[in-house]
Structure formats: C-alpha cells, structure tokens
Specification:
The complex is a heterodimer of chains A (334) and B (345). Chain A is of the alpha+beta class. Helix content of chain A is 31%, strand content 23%. Chain A has 8 helices and 13 strands. Chain A has a 7-stranded mixed sheet with strand order 8-10-7-11-9-12-13. Chain A has a 4-stranded mixed sheet with strand order 1-6-4-5, with helices on one face. Chain A has a two-stranded antiparallel ribbon with strand order 2-3. The longest helix of chain A is centred in the N-terminal third of the chain and has 18 residues, at 101-118. Chain A is globular. Chain A starts with 13 loop residues before the first helix and ends in a 13-residue tail after the last strand. With 345 residues, chain B is α/β, with parallel strands linked by helices. Chain B has a 5-stranded parallel sheet with strand order 2-1-7-8-9. Chain B has a 4-stranded parallel sheet with strand order 4-3-5-6, with helices on both faces. Chain B has a domain at 57-292: HypD, alpha/beta domain 2 (Rossmann fold, 3-Layer(aba) Sandwich). Chain B has helices spanning 6-12, 25-33, 59-71, 92-96, 108-117, 134-147, 162-168, 179-185, 188-195, 207-220, 242-251, 281-285, 300-304, 328-331, 336-343; strands spanning 18-22, 44-48, 75-78, 102-104, 123-127, 152-156, 174-177, 200-202, 228-230, 252-259, 263-272. The chains are: A alpha+beta (334), B alpha/beta (345). The interface between A and B is medium-sized, with 27 and 39 residues.
Chain lengths: 334, 345
C-alpha cells in the first residue's frame, strides 16, 4: 500500500477497495461487516438507544490516546449513560489528502482495540477523501446502537433533593492533556487523557442498584457543565464540597498556572452519577474496584434551594458560587 | 493576648467599621473563590481597587492596537484577557473578522520567538501589566536585541503601583498589598508609605494566607498608627528581586500614565528607554498616544476606585455581562465586575 492517502482512495474504485480490505477490514472484520450497502442485524428485544458523534480533536494524537480511541469511547459512553448495552457502531471517515496511511492504521487499530473492550461490533463504514486543506487531518463520525437494560430509565430531569453526586474519577484530565499537546505554554506536565469506554463501569453500577436517577458522561465543558445542565433540567440546586472534588496534582498545577478551573476542562472517561443518598456508599465501593473508576468520589448533594445553581462549600467552610459555564477559556495575565 | 487563629480573629472582630482595599486582580478572584467575604463581620467593607492590569488600561490602548492590526498589518500578540476588551468601536477579537491577525500568547517571549520565525511580518506584543509581568516584556525586548530580531516591538502600557497607593490614600483604612508584585518590589515601599500615613499588609493567595492578612489588619487598625506588615513571608522578602528591578531599569523608564477611572498618575507608567526605543511600536509605526472613548454607559472607572460596587453600576448584569462586556472590568478574568458576576451567590 502507498504511504499517503490520495483522492483516489476516496473515489470508490480500486484504491478505495484496497484501503478497506488492507486497512479497515484488517481491524474491523466481523460477520456483520459485509460489502453490501447496509448491515442487516438482529433486532434486540425491548428498547434501543441510538446516538451519533463527530470527532475533530486536534492534535489527533495525544497522551493517553488518539482520535480513533476517542471516537469509540464517545459514542459507547453516550449509549452507556442511557443504560444501554452498546451493540453496534458505524464509522465514517473524512480524510485529508496527504494524510499518512501509517497514522490512519494506528487510528483504526486503536478503534478496534477499544471497540473490542467495549464489546461492540463495527458493522458499517464509509470513507471520503477531501482535498489538501479542506479538512484538518482526519474527522471521524461514529453512530451507535445499544440495547436499553430492562427496567432502566435514566434522564437528566430525574435528579432529586437529597441525591448524592458522585464522579467516577479525577476531573479535567482530557482537556488538560489536549491543551498541553496543542501549546505547551512552556509547561512540562505528565498529564494523560482519561479517555476510556465506560459500559463496564455503568453495568457494575446498574448491577448494584437500578435506583440511579441520572448518569451523564462529562465531555466538552467538563463536570461543571454537567452539574449546571442537570441542575437546570431537574430544577434543583447542587452543593459541592470543594475539597472532595478529585483533581490530579499535575492538572491542578497546570490549571493554577493558566488560571483555569479543572471542573470545566473536558473529560472523556468520567461519569457523573446522581443517586439517592442510601445508595451512595455501596456504589462508591463498587466503583472503586472498577478499572476506570478507582478514583471515584462523592463530591456533593442535590438541594431544593438555589435551584439551577451550583454552590461550592470552600476549604475554609464558606460558600461561593461555581461560576456558570460559558465563554472561551483564556490564560490568566498575571 | 491568648493565641487565636486568623479565622477566629476575623469572625470575632467587634471593633469600628473598617474599609480594606485589595489592589490585585488575583486577590479579587481568590477572595470570591474561597467565599472569604462571607466570613467577615458586617462592619468590614472589603473593597476591590484598581488591581487588574487590563482594567486600568485606557480604552485608547485597544484603539492603538487596532490601528497596528488593521492599518499597519502587524501581527498582534497578546495575553488572552485583552482580546475582548472593548475599544472605542470594536475589540481585537472582532477585528479578526476584518482580517487582523491576533494571536494569544502566554508569554511575551513567545511573541519574540514568533517574530524571529516570521521575519516577513511585523509582530507587536501588547505589553500591559504591573511589576510582576513587566520583567517578561523586558526579557522579550532584550532577546530581540541580542538576536537581531528587527520585526518585533512592544505597545506599552505597563504600570507601577507605588504612586497609585498615594492617589488612593483615604479610599481605605488599609490595603491588602499585592503578593506577587511585592516579590519584585520588596517591602521597602510599604515602609515608605507607612511613613506617609498609608497602612497595609502584604497578602498571599491561599485561603489561610488571605485570612491571616485580614486578621493582621483587624488587629493593627484599632492601634491607631500607620502600619506595614509582610503576611506573605513564604514568598515575599524585604529586598524583593533586585535582578528583576535591574532588568526593568535597563530597558524601561518611568513616565506619566493614564489609569482608567483615575486619570494621570505621575511616574506610574513604564516606557522603553532611549536605548531600546527602536522596539517601541508607537515610535516605529508613528502612532500617537490615543485617548479613546469608553462607552458612556460604562462605570468601570468608579468601580476601579472602589467608589461603587459592581452591583451599583446601572448596566451590571443587564447590558454588561461577560458575553457582552461594556467595559474592561467585566471582560478581564481579573476584573472586579467579572468576579462579582461569576461568583456572587
């Protein structure tokens, strides 16, 4: 195979077939992935959940993963947050002319590895090539279908006063890793993205109790944005304990230097869980034994008052508002 | 006197009403971030003064930057905060739509390096800041001179605090002196100010350090004599940083400067001196100092002097929000209005 993607690879002819059989099929092969126009699948019983996501992360390679791994995790996690076991994925590539094939190979490899871990099949795909400069490297869109577990009904509007708020690990790592990969700001820090497929984590929680009100994966905008979304959707307030929010020391250091709030940096492998108080302890026990949730922590409580707001109890016992999300993140001046 | 913690001293204060002014944007935000105001007894009025270097920079500075960007086609390198500060007609972010090249940098040295890598472009760094940030601008200019980078210049609005305290005398019973500025200046200036009847405490940035500084003020004020105390000895020494001060003196010289909301404070500005004037963007591009016109609805000046609180400004939170700022105090991440808007319960 050649070294670089050319327009011919997206034209639908010989080179496209070579790319598919030589690269994509190598990694994604399974009985459902045929040369037909569409995949024909057995319909799961009960309700299905379906979602789609586009991935344009820059740089496409970052500490802790690449755009391929991210494209699987993002969609798998969205399904998982509806209590749906991820079953099938499709993926669509738009690749820039001149993109190194070795790099594409690594991306597909990461997708296959992550899909296998999540237990999903890649059942259909598409490849387009755009001229040099018309797209930045590679953009990936994945669509996923999952089977909603019996008896599970999760919604952002279901948080109730008294609910415990749990986060499944330290916050802001993905956003911080990306920030440092783009422009080091002269800072050296060992920060790896937290990008991870979380169906296993969700399953372990739902196996413990079906009495979970809200599950949301914190992505763009971080945990802070999720908290404000849920507060708004459910018409409740949230009280956070500043000292209980887990932040990796390197992330805290970078945020301190750049004037950023870790709660508003993106995550890609973290869930925010709202559950009645009585379930909090046993859920935390289960989470702490999980591969991607060993750092789980209870960070707050849902309140009736201050609806729509997130109030922080600070390290000195005073109360302040977590500033609502919004606007660009800009580095501090002095 | 038995030993009490700073928090106990603050909470149990029952003396006369006091006005305490902080003059550091980072203090403004830290105080909010930790909810410190909520711990203060009602007769303590913690005022935010002109501590944000972006906020005290005149509207005209943005207008000058826009002339450089749009008419002189220079690449503008700037700290992020300046990008959305309103000029008379538009801000730097808005000028991108008209073809201006505006790059956010974390350090002025990055701007100098960019200029070295792009010799075909003129690169101007918007140099604002107090004593903490000024040495970095000086380093950038020195590097440009040493490496023969001819296409780099500074548009300066750097300022020093010394004379500002004198102008602000009477606005407060005591100051919380800026912790990081003090690492450069040392504490000698505060002893001088004490002799002139101005009191203050050098203050750090953790909740404990801020409470400690406040406690010192609450203990010393009732004694009735001017005072100067360093409550941030972990980082601030009496001599400060002679190296940084020497560098500033080698490259810049004091000048009169206009502070938004205050007017001219003699000797409070810094400009490139004779030996480095080739790096002065105003000289290089022939731009006169431009006064600019702030939005008539803007009350940033009064907020900066601590005369009114943001809530007293008629446009605060209504027309003027972080997404649509009328003035610098709302747009800067260190601005008083942005702090009140973001954090006020």
């Amino acid at each position: 195979m050649e070294e670089y993607i050319t327009l011919a690879h997206g034209a639908g002819g010989r080179q496209t077939s070579e790319l598919i059989s030589g690269l994509f099929k190598k990694y994604f092969d399974n009985p459902y992935l045929t040369a037909d126009d569409a995949a024909v699948l057995p319909a799961p019983a009960g309700k299905i959940a379906m979602t789609t996501d586009g991935f344009i992360v820059s740089p496409s390679d970052f500490p802790g993963g690449n755009i391929g791994k991210l494209s699987i995790c993002g969609t798998v996690n969205d399904l998982s947050c509806m209590g749906a076991k991820p079953l099938y994925l499709t993926c669509s590539f738009v690749i820039e002319e001149g993109f190194p094939i070795a790099k594409l190979d690594k991306i597909a490899e990461a997708m296959a590895k992550t899909a296998a871990e999540a237990g999903v099949c890649m059942v259909a795909g598409d490849t387009k090539v755009a001229g040099k400069g018309q797209v930045d490297g590679v953009f990936i869109t994945t669509t996923g279908v999952g089977q909603v577990l019996d008896g599970v009904s999760l919604s952002g509007a279901s948080a109730r006063p008294g609910d415990a708020v749990i986060v499944t690990g330290d916050v802001g790592r993905h956003g911080c890793a990306i920030l440092l990969s783009r422009d080091s700001y002269g800072i050296e820090a060992d920060v790896k993205s937290d990008c991870a497929p979380l169906w296993g984590t969700v399953k372990s929680m739902l196996d413990t109790t079906a009495d979970i009100h809200v599950l949301r994966d914190a992505t763009r905008g971080g945990v802070g944005t999720v908290l404000y979304e849920i507060a708004e959707q459910s018409g409740v307030g949230i009280r956070l304990e500043q000292t209980a929010v887990p932040v990796d020391p390197a992330v805290a250091g970078v945020c301190g230097m750049l004037g950023l709030e870790p709660l508003y940096l993106a995550c890609e492998g973290r869930l925010v869980v709202f559950t009645p108080e009585k379930n909090a302890e046993k859920l935390l026990e289960v989470l702490k034994r999980g591969k991607y949730s060993a750092g789980a922590a209870r960070i707050g409580t849902v309140t009736e008052e201050m609806a729509g707001r997130v109030v922080v109890r600070t390290s000195i016992g005073a109360e302040t508002l977590l500033p609502p999300p919004g606007g660009e993140l800009l580095p501090r001046i002095c | 006197m038995e030993n009490k913690t700073a928090a106990e001293i603050v909470r149990s204060y029952s003396g006369a009403p006091l006005r305490i002014m902080e003059v550091c944007g980072t203090h403004t935000h830290a105080i909010f971030q930790y909810g410190i105001r909520k711990l203060l007894p009602p007769q303590i009025n913690l005022i935010s003064g002109p501590g944000c270097p972006v906020c005290v920079t005149e509207t005209g500075f943005i207008d000058e930057a826009l002339i450089l960007a749009l008419e002189k086609h220079a690449v503008i390198c700037t700290f992020g905060d300046l990008v959305r500060v309103p000029g008379t007609k538009m801000n730097l972010a808005g000028s991108r739509a008209q073809g201006a090249e505006v790059r956010i940098v974390y350090s002025p040295l990055d701007a100098c390096d960019y200029a070295a890598e792009h010799p075909d472009k003129e690169v101007v760094f918007l140099s604002v800041g107090f004593e903490t940030t000024t040495p970095a601008s000086c380093m950038a200019v020195r590097r440009a001179k040493e490496q023969g980078v001819k296409n780099f210049s500074l548009l300066t609005a750097n300022k020093t605090m010394d004379n500002a305290y004198r102008v602000l005398k009477g606005s407060a019973d005591a100051f919380l002196y800026p912790g990081h500025v003090s690492t450069i200046t040392g504490t000698g200036i505060y002893d001088q100010l004490k002799d002139e009847g101005i009191s203050g405490v050098v203050c750090g940035f953790t909740p404990d350090e801020i409470l400690t500084a406040l406690a010192v003020v609450l203990v010393k004020c009732p004694e009735g004599k001017p005072f100067a105390v360093n409550a941030y000895p972990r980082v601030v020494t009496a001599e400060g940083s002679p190296i940084a001060r020497r560098m500033i003196a080698e490259i810049m010289e004091p000048c009169d400067d206009v502070w938004r909301g205050i007017g001219v404070i003699p000797g409070s500005g810094l400009q490139l001196n004779e030996a480095y004037r080739e790096f002065d963007a105003r000289v290089r591009f022939g731009i006169p100092k431009t006064p600019g016109r702030p939005n008539p609805a803007c009350h940033c000046g009064e907020v900066l002097m601590g005369k009114i609180r943001p809530k007293d400004c008629p446009v605060f939170g209504k027309v003027c929000t972080p997404d649509h700022p009328i003035g610098a105090c709302m747009v800067s991440s260190e601005g008083t209005c942005s702090a009140y808007y973001k954090y006020e319960l």
